[in-house]
Every structure is written in structure tokens, then in C-alpha cells.
Amino acid sequence: MSSFNRELFSLTSAMPELAGGALGKKSSKKHGSKKGSKKHSSKKSMKRVEKMEGGKKHGSKKGSKKHSKKSSRKQSREIPAWMQQMMQVKKEVKSVHTDIKDGPPLTKVVMEAIKSKGDVKGAVEHLSNMSSSELKSKLEKVAQEIAEKRASKKAARMASQ
Known about the structure:
The protein is mostly helical. The protein is built from seven helices and no strands. It starts with a helix and ends with a helix.
């Protein structure tokens, strides 16, 4: 065989087989080579085999290792401590000052109070002792700062485009 024919043969032999060909069942294979064994079957086919054989497992140990790695990567579903503290302070402040609405400005004011006082109790006391008008003016000021930052970001984004 000439080198050209060898290259042509190697190119054509790597092509997938068409359904309904002369090879019958082997032609319906989607993955793998002709020499491939049944050890490397997919998870779906393993599940089908398990159902048909009454739940017997024939899988390799590699599959179980993958499962254990996956379970170790699970994220915890707990709320972070700082967020719990913030929510607790917000709840206390809203119960004292009933006319105050929740939102980003209140979150920012509460977080600043927690940082400055060091704990939840100090922040609650500090914000509860403020008069409603004083707290409202602080919230309006923070809301204005947030709006300015958003506008400047939007302007920068529009300028870059």
C-alpha cells in the first residue's frame, strides 16, 4: 500500500460508523472504538443494567470515588454569621423605628454601626438611641451616595463603549 493510500485509509477508518450498516449492533455504538470493552460504559447504561438485573451493581470503584468527591464539595446552606448579625440588628431597628423602610441604605448604615461598635448589642443600642429624624436623614444621605456611585459607574460604562 502506498503512503497516500495508508493516509487515506487512516482518515476513513477514524470516521464514525453509520446506522444501518453491515456491522449491525456495533454500528449503533455512539462512543468508543471497536476494541473497547464493556468496562467503560456510560452511567446511563449502568443504571439501565442495574434496573434490569434487580439492582445489582457492576460498576467500577472509580465511579464511587467520583461520587465521594462530589459530596465533599457541597456548599453549606447556612447563612453567614455577618449576615445573621446584620439581619438581627435590622429587625431590632425596624421594631424601634417603625417608619423606616428596609433597603440598601439601611443595610449600609447597619453594617457601619456593627463595624464601629464591634458587636450586635452595641449597634442595636446606638441605632435605637438615635432619633427617627436623625436616622432618616442619615439614610437619605447614604441613599444619595449610592445613587451617585451607580450613576458614575453607568457613565463610565457608557464612555467605555
